[in-house]
Specification:
The protein is α+β, with helices and mostly antiparallel strands. About 40% of the residues lie in helices and about 25% in strands. The chain has four helices and five strands, in the order αββαβαββα. The strands form two sheets. A three-stranded mixed sheet has the order 3-4-5. It has a two-stranded antiparallel sheet with strand order 1-2. Helix 3 links the parallel strand 3 and strand 4. The longest helix is centred in the last third of the chain and has 16 residues. The chain is globular, with a radius of gyration of 16 Å. The relative contact order is 0.14.
């Protein structure tokens, strides 16, 4: 857990991919890290707090499909995979922010 705390403190990220032997096995959130620290301390394994029920999209997945899957699963973050290769995370909150900013800029063009 101490490595997760360091990652949280040294970045702007609030969700982290947990990998085992280069294979993603779950997602660890800021809230999971805080809960783990409070319950078991910094030496607890992240596996005790990792969400292993995540969904996967590809870089070609349409945003509407991502939002539908996020809504159905009750999760806001998905892994982006290309075959067996992890490409990153997609977060519905970040996508919504980008869409809102683009809309505001489009409406403000005078």
């Amino acid at each position: 857990m101490s490595q997760a705390v360091d990652a949280l403190l040294n970045s702007q990220e609030t969700e982290f991919v947990v990998v085992d032997a280069d294979r993603p096995v779950g997602i660890l959130t800021r809230n999971d890290i805080i809960r783990g620290l409070a319950e078991k301390g910094k030496n607890s394994p992240v596996s005790d707090y990792t969400n292993t029920k995540f969904f996967i999209v590809t870089s070609a997945t349409p945003l509407i499909e991502f939002f539908q899957k996020a809504s159905q699963s009750g999760q806001s973050v998905a892994l982006v995979m290309d075959g067996d290769s992890l490409q990153g995370l997609i977060d519905s909150e970040n996508v919504n922010e980008k869409l809102l900013i683009q809309e505001a800029l489009k409406n403000n063009r005078t």
